[in-house]
Amino acid sequence: MHDVVEEVARLHAGGDRFALATVVGTWRSAPRQPGAAMVVAADGDPIGSVSGGCVEGAVVTEALDVIASGKPKMLEFGVADETAWNVGLSCGGTIRVFVEKVGQS
For residue 96, with 0-12 CB atoms within 10 Å meaning exposed, 13-18 middle and 19 or more buried, which class applies? Predict the structure, then answer.
């Protein structure tokens, strides 16, 4: 989490646009708990983590859309126990991630 806070401070001080993705809810098993965060810079560079496997890539893609549109999104990812390994997760569960734009322009 320390890296995320430092990156938010650095990007904000530089006036850069970026997105902040935060885990706001989990059900059953989840790799990260509520409060876990990831910063995605306008160039797509992520710092931090909100999950694992293909979920991280999907959050980066959605974050870039949020930066471009300025409209926040609530994302939900769910995986059944039987298919969790197929998408790079160790177990089934559901997470909800809120993505918001931060910065000017």
Answer: middle
